[in-house]
Amino acid sequence: MDESLSKMTRKELNHYIQTKREAMRRAEMMGVENEYRVLERQVIIAECYLIDLSQIENGKIYKVISQDDHYFKVEYMKGIFVWGFFVNGDEKESAIPVSMLQLPKQVR
Fold first, then answer.
1. 81 Cβ partners below 8 Å, 6+ apart?
2. Domain residues of the chain, as ranges?
3. Does 2 score more than 80 pLDDT?
4. Which CATH architecture has domain 53-100?
5. Measured distance CA(34)–CA(66) in Å, rounded
C-alpha cells in the first residue's frame, strides 16, 4: 500500500491486516516460508498502530505474545517499539514491536 500505516484509520488497518493474513495462509499452504515470515512481520507492525500506547509502562514486565514463558521488561518506548530486556535473557538491550506485548484488555 502506498499510504503509511501510521496514517491509516482503524478500519483501513484492520483490512490491511486481514489481507496480509489471507496471504499468509496461502503462503503457508504453498510451503513458501520466507514469504510467510515477511507477511507475518508486516502484520505485527500494522497491529502496533491499533494499540493504545498509554497502556505500556516503563519498568514493567510483560509476557511476549505467542512465545511460551518469554517475558520482556520495558525500559522505554520509541515510536512503535519498546526497548528493554528479555527476562532471563542474555542481558543485551533489545527492541520489539509493541504488538508483541500481552497487554491488559487489548483492543485490536
1. 95, 96, 97, 98
2. 1-49, 53-100
3. no
4. Roll (2.30)
5. 19
